[in-house]
Amino acid sequence: MAKNYDLVLLGGGTGGYVAAIRASQLGLKTAIVEKDALGGTCLHKGCIPTKALLRSAEVYTTMKKSGTFGIDISEAVLHFSKVQERKQEIVEKLHNGVLQLMKKGKIDIYKGYGRILGPSIFSPISGSISVAYEDHRENDVLTSKNVIIATGSRPRSLSGLDIDGTRVMTSDEALQLSECPASILIVGGGVIGAEWASMLADFGAKVTVVEYTDRLVPTEDQAISQAMARSFKKRGIIVFTKAKILPETLKKTDSISIEAEIGDKRETFTAEKMLVSVGRLPNSEDIGLANTSIEIENGYIKTNAFGQTKESHIYAIGDVIGGLQLAHVAAREGVKAVEHMAGLYVEAIDEDLVPKCIYTHPEAASIGMTEEEAKKDHEIKIGKVPFGAIGKALVYGESGGFAKIIADKESNDILGVHIYGPHATDLIGEAALAKLLDASPWEIAETIHPHPTLTEVIGEAALAVDGRAIHI
User: Fold this and answer.
1) Listed residue (273, 331, 259, 289) closest to 127, CA to CA
2) Which among 278, 311, 336 is the end of a domain?
3) Can 340 be counted among the known catalytic residues?
4) What distance, in Å, lies between the first and last C-alpha atoms of the chain?
5) What is the pTM of this model?
6) CATH number of the domain that residue 192 is part of
7) Is 357 contained in some domain?
8) CA geometry: angle at 231 spanning 227 and 237, to 5°?
């Protein structure tokens, strides 16, 4: 017998469960089908566990240099198992919180594998969900007025490269490391690769990064890439760019070795372990899309600006539709999809207003255009201020990095903000609000920034756009 809902979500990650909560607020009878734990990649294999590990790595590094703060400790000892325990405690606490939110919203949870059905005895249109269970009990069928596909993504590998989960890993397996490896080769110098490089170096591993493009974090402003490269070099992290890994040369013994083409030369890399971080693939297979008229392109589900697929009652959000694969984007897409299906006024997400964060040490954060992008269609002016000019950064002992604001010369509109330095991922919030409100550098500069705080770097950068910075 079919069970009826106003909305069924296929996937209970960040996008899925946030959408479910918004649907509940609007009075929609809602269910989530999720084969694993609620919270998805972000909570269990991505944002939260990696940031918990990064925080432990930061504390460990701070303790090792405590002498610079006038505090001598005999020895800082790393207990990696306790680091992992702390990470898991945080994940479990947040997972329990999500479960309580589902209970509060009277949202039904089906722990199983969901597939979309075509027109059938259950519904004259496609969109009913068949739920299969691990214990092989009879499938449930959920009928619904609307469906949201929020099945997320998984780590991508390189063709021909065997991921064994022990010597050669993706970030999924790396999160379960029982101890910090003595050495590691990281294939891919994007956001995830850079974060793991920074973390493992702080834990004491010898880290080598091999990146296919010409710089680290190639989607970021070149100034951030250059500053991160300098920081990595100072910390002993070896980086090779314009390097193409050759999977067929992989050899595994007690360690791993593999070759890469770098220009017209071949280089052999050896390490205890290898982490492959070359992007992610959408989870769009085997979910019943063939039973619908939904269009896909390169594995990604095609939608309009509000998440609607070709079948107007079926929406898709998050990593499975491509775009900016960020938890906060998936969550906002979920809210907008629900509000759109409920008939509320909804504005499409403007990717230019989405902040991006990298949790290396120091951190990086940005919003809007890079300098290179801005120059294509604008006459620009730039304000750039080093953290070394900010008193609070010196107090923290974290004076490396900068804040950079790019503005249009004629209109004075802010085009992009880029920060590399302490607490950059927190500071970007001011820039995000400024972009949303269409503030000018003058308006940011007129905002009184308390002293001494790290936020002063934003105010100084805004002044610097027009040559009025005080402390440089």
Assistant:
1) 289
2) 278
3) no
4) 72
5) 0.95
6) 3.50.50.60
7) no
8) 130
Angstrom distance (rounded) from CA 419 to CA 435: 15
> Is there a domain that residue 407 lies in?
yes
Contact indicator for 146, 10 with CB cutoff of 8 Å:
no
The helix (H) or strand (E) run that includes residue 112 is: none
Q: pLDDT tens across 162-184, in order? A: 899 999 999 999 999 999 999 99
- Residue ranges of the alpha helices (H) in 297-388? 327-341, 371-377
Within 116-266, residue ranges assigned H as helices are 171-174, 191-203, 222-234
Among candidate residues 136, 449, 451, 471, the one labeled active-site is 451
Q: For residue 214, what are the domain limits?
A: 157-278
400 and 254 within one domain: no
Kindly state the helix (H) or strand (E) to which residue 267 belongs, with its residue range: strand 265-271
Q: How far apart are CA 209 and CA 190, in angstroms?
A: 10
- Tokens (6 digits) for 206: 């010898």
For 14, 55, 423, 442, the CA distances from 392, given in Å and listed in that order, are: 34, 20, 11, 23
Rg (CA), the chain: 24
Q: What pLDDT does residue 120 have?
A: 82
Structure tokens at 49: 């566990």
Q: Are 34 and 111 in contact (CB under 8 A)?
A: yes
- Residue 471 located in a structural domain: no
pLDDT (0 to 100) of residue 205? 97
Residue indicated by tokens 């325990």: 85
Distance of CA 199 to the CA centre of its chain: 16
The reply to whether 49 and 132 lie within a common domain is: yes
User: What's the CATH number where 385 sits?
Assistant: 3.30.390.30
pLDDT in the model for residue 1: 60
In contact, 31 and 9? CB cutoff 8 Å: yes
**Total domains in the fold of the chain:** 3
Q: pLDDT tens, 196-244?
A: 999 999 999 999 999 999 999 999 999 999 999 999 999 999 999 999 9
* Residue recorded with tokens 């068949």: 130
Which segments of the chain have a pLDDT < 70? 1
SS3 327: helix
Q: Of 278, 299, 315, which one is at a domain's C-terminal end?
A: 278
pLDDT (0 to 100) of residue 209: 98
CA 454 remoteness from chain centre:
24
- pLDDT on residue 36: 95
- 186: tokens are 């990281």
